[in-house]
Design a protein that fits this description.
The chain has about 350 residues and is mainly α. Helix content is about 75%, strand content about 0%.
């Protein structure tokens, strides 16, 4: 089974209106995220907060949701861009930070840092998470590249599943002897943005900015690589350098996001596939819109998690898994039918 290049066509019904609607939906989702929670507030209370004219309880409720909304926006944008970049890098429609073991590697590295080296803050284990993400990505590629035919999309998906299962088991093995931190780590491993503060967000911003920049710079290179390595080389592209740039961007985005939020799955799978229906597979257009779409998805997932089981909450990782599972099955069936 050979890797199928992702087509670079424009969709028949692509129109700027879809982009404007996406921007409007993102703005509305930010507003909903700020006003919906265990203590409902309204827009007038938010306006009052800006003018300093709300009661202390409303002010505290809104103030706690603003960093949470910001972290959800950053996490969604980062994971969606990372997923689209990985799909272009591997020419694999099933590529996703969660499915290819990248999130699992970052999570294992962070758990080891907390359990064995007493790392207690994201600023201390961001580098550890990035190293874990990069190591697991390399391991998946090496396993998939064994044997004849190289790292085909099917082999990448299978090796990603195997490596993810192995790393998840190792993570459990590290946690089991540490009952004192097991509850905290298990909650973090679900993936969520609850309890976000500016102190938690600040340390990851440079990594996210650099990762996003690297991914956007790789957009044109991903377009050429979609034509095949030989065609890209013939057009003057240095394929090894292009792969390194795209990989660095995706790994930085995944590692830093996992350090701040825990592993959140399916965002990098669902958003790029949905937006290709809107703007096609030109990565120069797709990656910026993935940032908007990913932010929209995670903010809505977080807001929905607060509503479904009120007064309790569902973490973002649970909601995105519930939404992403059926989409994953649809993608697999679609590409399986195409290969028949």
């Amino acid at each position: 089974m050979k890797a199928r290049p992702l087509a670079l066509h424009r969709p028949r019904h692509s129109h700027p209106t879809g982009v404007y609607l996406l921007l409007a939906a993102l703005a509305a989702s930010v507003m909903l995220s700020v006003v919906i929670g265990a203590r409902p507030t309204d827009v007038t209370a938010l306006i009052g907060l800006l003018d300093g004219r709300v009661d202390s309880m409303d002010e505290a409720a809104i103030a706690s949701r603003l960093p949470r909304t910001l972290l959800a926006l950053l996490a969604g944008a980062s994971l969606a861009v990372a997923g689209a970049t990985m799909q272009g890098l591997t020419r694999n429609p099933l590529a996703d930070p969660g499915l290819l073991g990248v999130n699992a590697g970052a999570a294992l590295a962070v758990v080891i840092g907390i359990a064995w080296f007493d790392m207690q803050h994201a600023s201390r284990y961001i580098w550890v998470a990035i190293a874990g993400a990069g190591t697991s990505a390399l391991l998946v590629y090496l396993v998939a590249n064994l044997g004849r035919g190289g790292a085909t999309p099917l082999r990448l998906a299978l090796s990603g599943a195997v490596v993810t299962a192995a790393l998840t088991s190792l993570t459990s093995a590290v946690i089991l002897p540490r009952a004192d931190i097991a509850g905290l780590i298990h909650s973090w491993l679900i993936g969520g943005v609850g309890g976000a503060t500016l102190d938690r967000i600040g340390p990851v911003l440079p990594f996210l900015a650099f990762g996003l920049t690297a991914s956007l710079l790789a957009a044109r290179k991903l377009n050429l690589m979609a034509l095949g390595d030989e065609a890209a080389t013939g057009l003057g592209e240095r394929v090894a350098l292009a792969r390194a740039l795209a990989a660095v961007g995706a790994i930085l985005l995944c590692g830093a996001t996992t350090a701040a939020c825990g592993p959140i799955g399916f965002v990098g799978l669902v958003v790029p596939h949905a937006l290709r229906l809107l703007v096609g597979a030109d990565y120069r257009r797709l990656l910026p819109l993935c940032a908007l779409g990913g932010a929209l998805l995670v903010i809505l997932a977080d807001t929905l998690g607060r509503v479904l089981v009120r007064p309790a909450e569902l973490d973002v990782g649970i909601v995105t898994a519930l939404l992403g599972g059926p989409v994953f099955i649809w993608i697999v069936r679609r590409h399986t039918l195409r290969s028949l």
